User: Which sequence fits this backbone?
């Protein structure tokens, strides 16, 4: 192959490269596809000029239409196709522009992909990656904005990654491709333009390791996906109000490294879990349960959760604002945990608004 | 290998459940003259022109961010919705897609409530909880639209199953795109609808693309009607989606369908003039050409039906439409936002 460049230029700051989340995703796929001929990428619209909001940009040109191709609108069957190819030793990446569409893949994922290894007595493996994007932006409504990670966390045999920044987007994607099991990637559309330092070569952000993004004393905030970004903003505002918040990004939801969260909770005794999904039986419920189990008998611990309102997502702007947690609601809930005797405090709404668009560089 | 004539070998199916459903009643007599009702060029022109102008106004307003909901415009495709819906009665239902403005309006969905829905207002047809992709007006028998492609196809057939059981004589027109025909639920529904002789008019608006992907990258052959016929469903292709031809076909089929004749299928070749989603065009993206647009603009239903009227009649209709649209936009603008507590209502019935 006449080799078009696999990596994106990004921009250089302090001698290090800064890259957008969206470019990190395609760079990860490009590096792995160049390394391993068995990797291929398919799914509705991966090869068109919009290239899944840019996240598959350049791959068709680099690897050709046998390895980068669109499909009919047949998500159920296409998931089975990925499973079959994976069983034969290929490493398919199946891409969905909205996580909501994974509901059409559920039978194949739940009943075959996640349990083939076990059910077939260890004779096969299913090394496939399912990439999906939370479509949140204004007005997407009930069926184009959902975050359904907990459905997949429920399954033995399934791994789930929810990278919150460009560095992890690349490292999780590479780890997912190299993993011998089915891996669900939950990306977030609003994170696509956010930037972080991203090394040029291949590296993995391995399953089962959380990251402490910010150290603090008074309260632990666990954020899932974009809620990490919002929790970091909340932590800045909390600092101004005299509360020192520790922020943890689990990165991988399955396998979940709850040890790091437990260690933090052991010090702060106060944990707020901010999920970008519903609370019922959600990631936050799992994290809370693990904390309760691990810390039972060690003295009082307080746990609170924020997430979607227990309703479908409405498109009308006011209702939509009330539906989602934001840095203000996270900060207010964390403050109430940290200072139960102080009067309730909510940060100035004007200062909580920009978090989605804020460029996130992270401490790494 | 003999190709068994499907109709001949079809077994008689008693589709009634053992439960307490009422026994099937014979269809109401009123239905019989519907199919013969004359096509009225003025009414048809009014319908296509009204949809066109509503969507042009939506596109005009869109960049102001007053409509915070992804819009999938039907501009260019109006003749299909109008041709199918014009001969329908109020008791008949339509099931549309996220590209559903035309279907909604053609079946008599409330215009003010539609614009208010796009604006996210409390007076919207879904009270600000649906948006452009989920238009609904159950009073006019416009079943809600879905943004997950194909999902409404079996739902429409289920609605038709109920009509059959309840003996209403009503039919359901089920609109779907060419892309939707690739989802498993489409052939699954065809099979069931044919098996149970459900009163469904399946209408595939084949505009040649699913987002930017042409048929050639999605279909092994383009013999969609042939595929459908293997289920024993009469299938007809309308190569230029002429409104009058589609209308005549549906009008003729209705009496038999109301009497239990089973589903029919229409494949209507058409063309979306604008981009997949949003108010603009996409001819600079390189996947389809303006020359093709020009070809389809010669078959513009607004143009063709307009020619059947004299200038004065047309102008009068146009003026009425403009006034109605202006009123609907003013209504949406003046309408209140839903109260924040509305977030929590209607989660359960
Ligand atoms: C199940 C599902 N898969 C993918 C999508 C993304 N998507 C939205 S519209 C569309 C194309 C549908 O094409 P078609 O059915 O021909 O309808 P058209 O937009 O041309 O009217 C796709 C792939 C979706 N909404 N739902
Ligand atoms: Mg289409």
Assistant:
């Amino acid at each position: 192959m006449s080799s078009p460049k696999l990596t994106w230029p990004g921009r250089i700051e302090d001698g290090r490269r800064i890259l957008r989340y969206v470019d990190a995703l395609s760079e990860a796929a490009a590096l792995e596809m160049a390394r391993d001929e068995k990797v291929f990428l398919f799914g509705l619209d991966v090869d068109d000029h919009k290239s899944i909001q840019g996240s598959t940009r350049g791959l068709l040109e680099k690897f050709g239409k046998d390895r980068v191709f669109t499909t009919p609108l047949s998500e159920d069957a296409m998931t089975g196709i990925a499973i079959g190819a994976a069983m034969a030793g290929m490493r398919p990446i199946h891409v969905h522009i909205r996580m909501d569409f994974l509901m059409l893949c559920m039978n194949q994922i739940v009943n075959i992909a996640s349990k083939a290894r076990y059910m077939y007595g260890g004779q096969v493996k299913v090394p496939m990656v399912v990439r999906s994007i939370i479509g949140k932006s204004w007005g997407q409504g009930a069926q184009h904005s959902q975050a359904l990670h907990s459905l997949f966390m429920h399954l033995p045999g399934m791994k789930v990654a929810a990278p919150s920044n460009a560095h992890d987007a690349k490292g999780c994607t590479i780890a997912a491709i190299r993993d011998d099991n089915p891996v669900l990637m939950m990306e977030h559309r609003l994170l696509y333009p956010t930037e972080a330092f991203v090394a040029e070569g291949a590296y993995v952000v391995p399953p089962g390791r959380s990251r402490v993004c910010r150290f603090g004393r008074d309260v632990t905030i666990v954020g899932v996906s974009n809620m990490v970004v919002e929790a970091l903003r909340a932590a800045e505002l909390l600092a101004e109000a005299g509360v020192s918040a520790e922020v943890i990004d689990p990165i991988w939801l399955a396998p979940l490294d709850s040890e790091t969260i437990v260690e933090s909770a052991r010090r702060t005794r106060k944990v707020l879990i901010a999920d970008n999904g519903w609370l019922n039986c959600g990631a936050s419920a799992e994290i809370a349960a693990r904390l309760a189990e691990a810390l039972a008998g060690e003295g009082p611990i307080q746990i609170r959760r924020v997430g979607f309102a227990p309703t479908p997502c409405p498109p009308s702007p006011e209702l939509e604002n009330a539906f989602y947690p934001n840095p203000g609601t996270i900060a207010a809930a964390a403050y109430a945990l940290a200072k139960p005797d102080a009067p309730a405090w909510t940060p100035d709404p004007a200062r909580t608004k920009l978090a989605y668009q804020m460029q996130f560089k992270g401490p790494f | 290998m003999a190709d068994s004539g499907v109709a001949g070998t079809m077994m008689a199916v008693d589709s009634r459940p053992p439960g307490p459903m009422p026994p099937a009643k014979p269809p109401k007599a009123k239905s019989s003259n519907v199919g013969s009702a004359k096509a009225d060029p003025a009414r048809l022109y009014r319908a296509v022109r009204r949809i066109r102008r509503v969507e042009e106004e939506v596109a005009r307003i869109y960049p102001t961010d007053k409509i915070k909901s992804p819009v999938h415009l039907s501009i260019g495709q109006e003749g299909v919705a109008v041709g199918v819906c014009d001969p329908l009665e109020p008791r008949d239902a339509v099931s549309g897609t996220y590209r559903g403005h035309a279907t909604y309006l053609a079946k008599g969905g409330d215009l003010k409530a539609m614009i208010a829905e796009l604006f996210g207002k409390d007076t919207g047809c879904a009270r600000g909880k649906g948006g452009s992709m989920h238009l609904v007006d159950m009073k006019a028998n416009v079943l809600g639209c879905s943004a997950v492609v194909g999902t409404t196809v079996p739902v429409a057939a289920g609605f038709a199953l109920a009509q059959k059981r309840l003996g209403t004589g009503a039919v359901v027109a089920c609109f779907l795109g060419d892309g939707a025909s690739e989802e498993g639920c489409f052939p699954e529904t065809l099979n069931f609808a044919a098996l149970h002789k459900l009163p469904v008019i399946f209408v595939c608006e084949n505009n040649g693309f699913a987002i930017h992907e042409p048929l050639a990258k999605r279909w092994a052959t383009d013999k969609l009607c042939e595929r459908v016929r293997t289920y024993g469903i009469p299938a007809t292709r309308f190569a230029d989606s002429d409104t009058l031809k589609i209308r005549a076909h549906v009008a003729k089929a209705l009496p038999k369908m109301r009497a239990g004749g089973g589903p029919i299928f229409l494949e209507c070749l058409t063309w979306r003039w604008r981009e997949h989603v949003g108010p603009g065009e996409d001819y600079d993206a390189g996947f389809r050409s303006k020359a093709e647009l020009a070809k389809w603009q010669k078959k513009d239903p607004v143009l063709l039906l307009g020619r059947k009227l004299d200038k004065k009649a047309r102008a009068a209709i146009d003026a009425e439409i403009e006034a109605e649209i202006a009123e609907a936009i003013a209504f949406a603008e003046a309408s209140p936002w839903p109260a924040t507590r509305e977030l929590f209502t209607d989660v359960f019935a």
Q: What stands out?
A: Chain A touches chain B at residues 44-45, 48-50, 70-77, 100-101, 103-104, 138-144, 309-312, 314-319, 322-323 (CB under 8 Å). Residues 358-364 of chain A have pLDDT under 50 and may be disordered. Chain A has two domains: 12-197, 211-340. The two ends of chain A are 34 Å apart (CA to CA).
